[in-house]
Design a protein that fits this description.
The protein has four helices and 14 strands. It has helices spanning about 5-15, 20-35, 195-215, 225-245, and strands at about 1-5, 40-45, 50-55, 65, 70, 75-85, 100-105, 110-120, 125-130, 135-145, 155-160, 165-170, 185, 220-225. The strands form four sheets. Strands 2, 3, 6, 8, 11 and 13 form a six-stranded mixed sheet that branches. The protein has a four-stranded antiparallel sheet with strand order 9-10-7-12, with no helix packed on it. It has a two-stranded antiparallel sheet with strand order 1-14. The radius of gyration is 27 Å and the shape is elongated.
Length: about 260
């Protein structure tokens, strides 16, 4: 790839062109409209368990009991439920015969369920711990006639004890949901960009800028080898654009 002074001036002229600004405006506007989902998307996230208390680490004379049963490995998880689509989920869309149900894969004793955050005060949620054939699960009900707008939802903190590592499953029927049935699990957090990728990006940017400035001042052609162009484009695409496409991160500001 060879870029002379004449070609460089043409590129600058093209960048300053009002037609380019018009094209970019239309492209971003249409692209944003196409990208925005037009669906009901009931979503959830279950946090990693946090151990609150473990009898194995306590003195032999100090124990915790619940209904005459010794408790071991008391843990907590956070369950976050929200509407990730742009179409509201009406209270009537939640099927009464198939309510929101959180159940463990394994033996567990559920001690407490508490709603700790809501997107709006008008959203009211009740919970019920059910025991069936020595298995426990939690049912969640939305009270009143409120709808879940985009990013509307709630967070519940569940306290439980178990003798083993367990997983949790969330079920529930929502009419008109994007996936045709119910809830979809979505991560809420992601790791920040690696310092290595940041340093490499700064290094590449400085090299490109210095080469352009030096060549332009000396009135020489700015030359980039084919593999250099391909490497820079692929690196930027994989490092910055791919996460924008595939990362689905939500940062709620609830109370």
């Amino acid at each position: 790839m060879r870029l002379g002074k004449k070609q460089f001036s043409a590129v600058l002229k093209f960048i300053r062109s009002p037609y380019l600004a018009l094209f970019v405006t239309i492209f971003l506007g249409v692209g944003a409209f196409i990208y925005i989902p037009h669906n009901k998307e009931p979503s959830y996230n279950i946090s990693s368990p946090i151990t609150v208390l473990d009898n194995q680490n306590l003195d032999s004379d100090f124990r915790f009991f619940w209904k005459e049963t010794e408790l071991n490995n008391i843990s907590q998880i956070d369950l976050t439920i929200w509407n990730d689509g742009d179409q509201f989920i009406d209270y009537s869309d939640f099927v009464k015969s198939s309510p929101i149900k959180l159940q463990s894969v394994g033996k567990v004793n559920i001690h407490n369920v508490r709603i700790v955050e809501r997107s709006r005060e008008e959203i009211s949620v009740t919970t019920k711990i059910i025991e069936n054939d020595s298995m426990q699960y939690i049912l969640f009900y939305l009270k009143g006639e409120e709808a879940l707008e985009h990013l509307d939802g709630f967070k519940a903190k569940i306290t439980y004890s178990t003798q083993e590592e367990i997983d949790w499953n969330l079920e529930g029927r929502v009419k008109g949901a994007k996936n045709g049935y119910g809830f979809e699990e979505i991560p809420l957090t992601k790791e920040s960009s690696s310092p290595v990728s940041i340093y490499v990006s700064i290094f590449l940017f400085l090299i490109v800028i210095i080469r352009i400035i030096v060549s332009y001042r000396k009135e020489k052609a700015i030359v980039f080898k084919g593999w250099e162009v391909i490497f820079i484009i692929c690196y930027l695409f994989m490092t910055y654009f791919m996460p924008l496409i595939f990362d689905n991160i939500r940062d709620f500001n609830w109370h």
